[in-house]
Amino acid sequence: MTGIAQQEGIININNKFYQYIGTGWKNETIVPENQITCKNLLTMTSGLEHTVDDVTPAKLIYKADTGTRWVYHNVYLKLQDVIANASGQSWSNYFNSKLRDKKGMSVAWFQVDNNSVYFSNTRSADRFG
Predict the structure, then answer these.
(1) Which residues neighbour 13 within 8 Å (Cβ) at sequence distance 6 or greater?
(2) How big, in percent rounded to 5, are the helix, strand and coil portions of the chain?
(3) Is 106 in contact with 118 (CB distance < 8 Å)?
(4) Please, which residues bridge with residue 48 across strands?
(5) What is the model's pLDDT at position 124?
(6) What is the pTM of this model?
């Protein structure tokens, strides 16, 4: 979805993340926050805490310089907020109009704890692939 949004010109992955969602989205000073790009979130090189799946501001703690290490972390989910803000639509509406409906997929997004989780069937997964 990030690729589609970039192709449409509504985001640029090289832009700073805060440009799309503002500051204060994590529990840190503005200096580390200003260093993180959308690409850092997409490539999991944000430098933020990775030991918990929680992506609420209190749990997003700066641990390393941005771009200096790769660690799997759910912080990439914040790109859903970027796309929603940039497109003026909810994440699920953007996803549905740009991908689900065009491919004829049966997909639903549900909030499970702090995560937006995608539920589908095997036919939809095949269409997605």
Answers:
(1) 2, 6, 37, 38, 39, 42
(2) 45, 10, 45
(3) no
(4) 62
(5) 83
(6) 0.82
